[in-house]
Amino acid sequence: MWNVKTRLIVMNFLEFAVWGAYLTCMGNYLGKVGMGDEISWFYAIQGIVSIFMPTIMGIIADRYIQPQRLLGICHLIAGLAMIGLCYMGMTSAQPDKVTFIALYTLSVAFYMPTLALSNTVAFTILKDHGYDTIKDFPPIRVFGTVGFIATMWFVNCATLDNGSFFFTLSENVNKFQYTYMQFFVSGVLGVLLFLYCMFLPKCKLVAKTSQSLSETLGFDAFKLFKTKRMALFFVFSCLLGMCLQVTNGYATPFITSFKGVEEYANSFAANNATLLISLSQVAEALCILLIPFFLKRYGIKIVMLIAIFAWVGRFGLFGLGNPAFPGVILFVLSCIVYGVAFDFFNVSGGLFVDQECEPKVRASAQGLFMLMTNGLGATIGTLLAGEVINKYCYWTEAGFLIGDWQSAWFIFAGFAFVVGIAFMIMFKEKKA
Question: Which of 33, 78, 171, 322 lies 20 to 30 angstroms, CA to CA, from 133?
Fold first, then answer.
């Protein structure tokens, strides 16, 4: 019989495996089926639904449906929609754009709330069984990143060619990372997680004290903007959030585009872009361990500055590198730097908000932080990045997004650099 921790490890593994199957390689498929110019919208939709869907599902989980069951139901709807995307791709070389985007929106609208719901389920089950969430949750959560990486590797190598299924690191246009099969993998895992959630320990609904509509929706956290330091923090969180989805959407089409250049066409990196980008998630998992030391030693301002200038490195190294040796080393360094850029901003920012806010608005403040970063910031940033890339690059008939990538990456790096300088000048840290 599996113990509680093992069961939660499997849940976290599947939770992020669902996402990893398509998040970083979806752009390759979209470009081949005539939706390359809309890549930024596909990633922006994730930010748009993140503005309101987690709140709605949170209210339902608090009052009406046990969180573990609601988690499963959300995954069932999202998974079936993903399988629908696979069916559209299977039956048409160029799926109807409006229907495809609508089905995709349905899927992510029910997937994005599960990121918070899975935490709620894990925290509740751990507490109900006498575990310490601060001590016992992080080792469980890290398996989520492992799941994300595992499906990235799977779709990078899995190939369905003329009815034969096999794994390869060599060039093959039928690899899942280039086709609609990435959605099938995500959908099947989502349905599997739905079934799994039905057998998780119950998370009993707890009677809540009466709250105003404003408090229920988390609007009371907006009063934090009255404090200049917190207002600046949230504004810069939004600006830095604009960097979050840029490489998720465009890193693999960028690296894959080198297949259209004879000099790099047969390079390992150009033919295994999803595998290469997975190093970013490996670095992310490892860099979490550095945060407590850096926060205690240097404080939030220095840690945030490190994160901001790490984004400069993330974009700049892409602009300078190429898939052949030694240029590929710069790609690898960009992936390593991503761990610092992502964790030092997202995780440290969440800890800072937790420390600075009163207990009664702590949860709402975390919601506001997510709204400013993964909601508004990521949405605006992705759409603007799409405009920049569509200006400098174009899709070829062979399905490669080629053009002046270097200028695009340097524009993104320049933006992060300006944000870093402004943050350095304007944000004042509390003196101990």
Answer: 78
Q: What residue spans of 64-94 are helical by DSSP H?
A: 67-91
165-177 tens-digit pLDDT? 999 999 899 999 9
Go through 290-308 and write b for each residue having 16 or more CB atoms within 10 A of its CB, e for each that does not: ebeebbeeebbbebbbbbb
Of the residues 203, 231, 265, which one is the last residue of a structural domain?
203
Start-to-end CA span in the chain (Å): 50
- For the chain, count helices (H), then strands (E): 17, 4
Alpha-carbon distance of 269 to 276, in angstroms, equals 6
Query: Among 173, 203, 233, which residue terminates a domain?
Result: 203
- How far is it, in rounded angstroms, from Cα 192 to Cα 88? 21
**Confidence band of 219 (pLDDT split at 50, 70, 90):** low
CB 401 within 8 A of CB 254: yes
**168: Cβ contacts below 8 Å, ≥ 6 apart:** 157, 159, 175
Number of domains in the chain: 2
Structural domain harbouring 273:
221-432
DSSP 357: S
Distance between CA atoms of residues 174 and 161, nearest Å:
6
Omega before 54 within 30 of 0, i.e. cis: no
Residue 45 resides in a domain: yes
- Structural contact between residues 35 and 92, judged by C-beta atoms closer than 8 angstroms: no
d(CA 350, CA 50): 17
What does DSSP say about strands 164-167 and 158-161: parallel, antiparallel, or unpaired?
antiparallel
